[in-house]
């Protein structure tokens, strides 16, 4: 497919709408673990507005889940933020691959595209291209808009609904947190090529957590960095 198809261009309503529509089935899945995250965030004292604002500014489900989990474990706010950032290092590799889509665009479009890039719309954009259909910057943004709206609304609704529950732990909702995180990890599986970085990350994280006298968060951070680094070497190897 010709490279000039993805060069900067004016707003493309058709491409934007296709990205918005094609991502809908994945957005519905995002809503499920968004509700679960909202419930657990409320368990840490976060209200609907705070939870929704966090989703809009951070927009990184796995990082938000890890950060809240670390807060629940009394690991401290700074360590929770660092652990969340480390887990999201893969986004650096994804946005680095968008040079063609972002090159030559005004700064606000670059920042918007980077902020809205997630596993779901990034993969869908490439899958659409592989089918021989055009999918560039505005396709990515259309999918990202759908995802972020669904994520913010579902997490805020989950936090609001939690107020009507007497005790999340006693009601067994604590398991929803674990289930949501497992669902997130499953969504990151892209086939056999995903296995080596996963193994490297898991071995490093487990080794640090079991063998070093440190908070398990540091093992998670080390594992995330090692996994992202290994994936980067694979990509450029």
From TrEMBL:
Q: Does the keyword Cell wall biogenesis/degradation apply?
A: no
Which locations, inside or outside the cell, does it occupy?
A: Cell membrane
Q: Which GO terms describe its biological process?
A: L-valine transmembrane transport
**Membrane topology reported for the UniProt record:** Multi-pass membrane protein
Any single GO CC term annotated in Swiss-Prot or TrEMBL for this entry: plasma membrane
Stretches that traverse the bilayer: 23-42, 49-67, 73-93, 137-162, 168-188, 195-212
Q: Does the keyword Cytoplasm apply?
A: no
Give the family per the record. Answer: Belongs to the AzlC family.
What protein name is recorded for this chain?
Branched-chain amino acid ABC transporter permease
